[in-house]
Amino acid sequence: MFQNISFKLIFAVGLAAILIISIFAYLNVRSQQQVLLAEVERHSNQLSETVKSSTRYDMLLNNRPHILKIVQQIGDDPSIKDIRIMNKEGSITYSADTSQIGHILDKKAQACYVCHAENQPLEKLPISNRTRVFRVHPDSSRVFGIINPIYNEPSCWTSDCHAHSRTQTVLGVLDVVISLKNIDAQIASAKFKMLLLAVIAIMALSGIIWFFVKNWVDKPVNALVTATRQVASGNLNYSIENVSSDELGVLARSFNNMTQKLSEARLQLVQSDKMASLGRLAAGVAHEINNPLTGILTYSSFLLKRAKDNPELKEDLEVIVRETKRSREIVKGLLDFARQSVPKKTKVDIREVLERALHVIENQLSLKQVKIVKQFENDLPRITADANQVQQVFINLIENGADAMGERGGTITLTAAAIQLAPFGILQVKKAACPKGHDLIDPAFKIDGLPSIRLKAASNGEEGFIHLHPVYGKPAHHYGIAIHRKSKFTLSCPRCNISLLEEGKTCPSCGSAVYALEVPSQGKLAGCTNKDCAWQYWETAEREGKKEYVEIKVADSGCGISRENLEKIFEPFFSTKGQKGTGLGLAVVWGIIDNHSGTISVDSEVGRGTTFTLRLPAEKG
Amino acid sequence: MKKTTDLLVIDDEPVVLDAVVKLCSAEGFQVDTAAHALEGLKKIAQAGYRLIVCDIMMPDMDGFQFLERLAEKHVATPVIITTGYSTVENAVKSLYLGAIDFLAKPFTVEELLSTVRRGMKYQELSQSFNAAARERNDLYPVYVPCPPSYYRLGYAGWVNVESDGSVKTGLSDLFIKTLGGIRRIEFFEREEEIVQGNLCARVETEDQLIHNVLAPISGKILNFNETLSQNCALAEKDPYFRGWLYTVLPSDLEYELKHLTPCSSDRL
Fold it and tell me: What is the CATH number of the domain that holds A264?
């Protein structure tokens, strides 16, 4: 919990908030306090000047009862704690509180100390030194005192009473004491408000940070952690979903990319490992079987040699020798297969390979009354291929064609032509995803034997799925729900419902709405939502431009392949030939063509025949 | 002088030993057997043999190691290698290591006997060649070694790289002499591919045996020697020039030349 990144972030931000807000609150409260005190000081000074000036005249007349009255009347104000006038000796001569009159103040008292700290009392004082803040009792509220010296002036010593001599500078002191209770209460309330604000601010900040950290950092990081654990435990098919568009999203995407590459590499590794162990097995079997076969072949051929004069025995022995030789060829084939795992690619002329393949099975074909029609274009570009493997492909396909025609025989047409193919209508979309990275490929719904792309559509309150043909530019899409061009509809990812429609864009050929899918690491694929419109645009593929291929067709006039079998013919161990076939022929064909980055497709009509179309990329230049 | 037996067969498979013993004895050869290479080496040390037939895959020591050991001990007895794992690589490697012939299992009586006969003849020829060399009687060559610019696979087939990048192949004089009289040569067709170490022609001899010729190089056959097919004696007269077999467009000359022996090394 404390190691948690979100906790650490919240802790750091909270700490910073506490620091800033406390400093701010402290400074704020202090300045408020100072302003208030200054105000009090100004008021008190004014007040004491007022008292002084209003009593001046009476002082000159020495009208003591009148002075006392004024002092008492002003001192009645509830905020004024006390007004006292002391003479030079410290004796209180006038006071709002009459009980104090006559008391002699100690020079160490609060009001006197400022001037009488030294033995020689000060006579002139700045205002800051004339004020004091103190408590009467430790429990009582604070009070503010201001002393105002009453200076001697000519009218004092010239007045009739002659109370003061001329030499005196200060005749006495006016001391006004004002209660700070209200101000203290104001300051306390301000402090409390500040504290409250600080607590609320810190909590709100932490909350907001917690929320965003949770969503922007915690979740994607946790998803990454889960993904790495999955990958570490061997699940390379795991991919992170709901990828955001920030740096963590980039990380997640590159992680997905990495696992995918790893998984492909592992598949490749497993495949080559399989081939290698199959090769070892074949080699072992070949070696082990060849020894007993040597025994059979030598003894039988020896017997055959000695049985020249015995035609009956000779015939039987010939069968043994012939069949043993056949076994020898099978084992040799096994060894060749084992060695095939390492293809040896060179530049080859496809016509030569075709001719050689025909030459190998020529006898077999004439026995089965199969006529071969060759339609080879001149000047075919060369291809980079393992001639033996490609020859094997043709032999397998031609033999299959011959087998499909049965005893009546028939015709096999071989065509070879150079073609230029734009990616449009050819390239298969093998991966597709919504902007959030959800896989849209639906292996359960195949169109022309290829996994389709599934989108969710809603129109007129109905919901359904649209399966797009995975070949770029092929309009044979399957609409599970009718979409009317005029009415409103939505097209979204079946997983996260994110809209796949491109806002504000329309199809350049028919004007319908346009969808856009991500093809991971191969850009964007856009297409028209109109079922009858073939418009699609895949920028990455278009940029690569046209490519040259050699297209070879092997067409037979045989029995054809039923629709349900058509999907399975390239799967290993699928055979319609019963005991005669191993079910590996077309699987090997598929593997070889795939190894040569070619494509193979099949068209068939039951009773009319089958056509295999191979496309192999031509050598550049 | 050690007692000399005709043939020593080394194989870990009893049925192969039995078969070879039976067939060769019927032809009048004396045959000795060994169940593994070490036993074979022991026997060779004790007695002399005219010819050895040895398997490749055996426990403890395989056929290749056996060939190397013989070369170390300067045993001149010619060796025919036979194996159930008859890949091109094995065939080429054994010939490169000094075996005179390669016989793929399973073999027929004819294949075995033609190979053994050839081996016996080879032994005779090389012995008299050595004897002639010892006596410095160079005026009477037992056989003509192939020209120094040529390469050979084993002792049978030669290769010469022509100026136009194609190669010519043919049979060595020594091989032709081991055959005896040639009656007919069965060629492969033009345009066909031949693979180094695999069959490229069959030679039928006067004694009605059919001898397999292994291709010294891989490639596409551009042409075969029509004059030779009409007049087989040409090979015996001029095996290295007018008696050529094929012109071939090699598929991987550089790589395959590494497995051939340069004929210049024969004259050291």
Answer: 1.10.287
